[in-house]
Amino acid sequence: MAILGATxxxxxxxxxxxxxxxxELEVVALSARSVSDRLIGLIGRLRPxxxxxxxxxxxxxTVHALFPQLELQAGEGSLxxxxxxxxxxxxxxxxxxxxxxxxxxxxxxxxxxxxxxxKEALVAAGPLILKALEEGGGQLIPVDSEHSAIFQCLQGxxxxxxxxxxxxASGGPFRxxxxxxxxxxxxxxxxxxPTWRMGPKITVDSATxxxxxxxxxxxxxxxxxxxxxxxxxxxxxxxxxxxxxxxxGALLAQLSLPDMRLPIQxxxxxxxxxxxxxxxxxxxQIGRLDFHRPDLERFPALRLAYTALERGGAAPAVLSAADxxxxxxxxxxxxxxxxxxxxxxQVLAKYEQNTLxxxxxxxxxxxxxxxxxxxxxxxxxAQQKAGEIAVLLKRSPIKG
Length: 400
Ligand code: NDP
Ligand code: MG
What we know:
alpha/beta, Rossmann fold, Rna Polymerase Sigma Factor, Chain: A, seven-stranded parallel β-sheet, four-stranded mixed β-sheet, 11 strands, about 45% helix, about 15% strand, binds NADPH dihydro-nicotinamide-adenine-dinucleotide phosphate, binds magnesium ion
């Protein structure tokens, strides 16, 4: 197998799973943006034969001196090189953002199994990914904990017996905060998620709740359900990872402590269940499980995601791309926490204003979203537009 995004939160958890099941999973390739001590440590433990560095080969010589046998490639195309290698049957995609799209498409077209953590790829190009899956005859297995839970609950069930799914959301660190408090949220506060330890982009997305919005779109494609049959339920303890409701009214859920090693292992060893490093769940210690309806007024990100899904075409790609930029601007302290979602909303509104008159222009972001080129054009347009709108805000850096 290959791990794309090996030095991230998912990548490192996956490496632990692979080391525990070394007789089942052989890691032959890794990717990271650049060389770090973390990466060197991983190469030492996993001993892959190939490494992709997406940013540059500058520090590649260090790696080469330490591991002379390692095949190296650099630049954006290097992820595709890994995805297409003959010695890779199983690809774990765990980079951040649209960078995960092309390797996912390539692996699926070659009939490989893709364990997908990078939800942005599915959000931006769901129909293209499903087409590649069908054409290549490979497998697509979700890693995101909610989607893994649903996927687990659906095993052995007939498709038409499914009535709807309930996606659980912790509600993030700011559940119950007032408007005033939300205005002053700092980067540090947004990065302190109450139940999960994750990379910075998804942690901020969880705080704005757009993560849950992206997950609704992800679920729509993975489980072939219309938006009205995907419901969000706030569940602060993050023990019930999602639920499935069947036609007879029965609900099935998957429960465990919040530990990504479980859904990662399930995806990598699917359909087998082997012992894992995840601590057993003692329900008597948890004591209670709470469920609430989400507050769409206070967290408009959910509504925005449903809107993008209903608009279809490249709207979800635009939503996701604008969010990538907005979150980075917040992490760079150039916009405030409460400006993230309005910025995304403005980009989506601009897209909608333009979408009708120019719908016939091929290669434009407003063309039908049926090709990779159209999706990448939409992504590029939305990233640029988000940057422009942010400049118009004429903000000086915000401290915090
Ligand atoms: P991290 O930020 O922790 O790690 C990202 C990894 O991808 C690192 O290896 C990083 O390399 C690499 N990377 C980042 N940006 C790029 C890029 N543009 N091109 C190529 N490589 C890149 O992220 P997470 O592990 O938290 O998340 C990864 C994906 O999984 C995201 O899409 C997220 O939404 C999804 N996910 C994560 C969950 C979690 O618990 N963390 C749960 C569910 C889904 P380097 O270290 O060199 O910077
Ligand atoms: Mg999730």
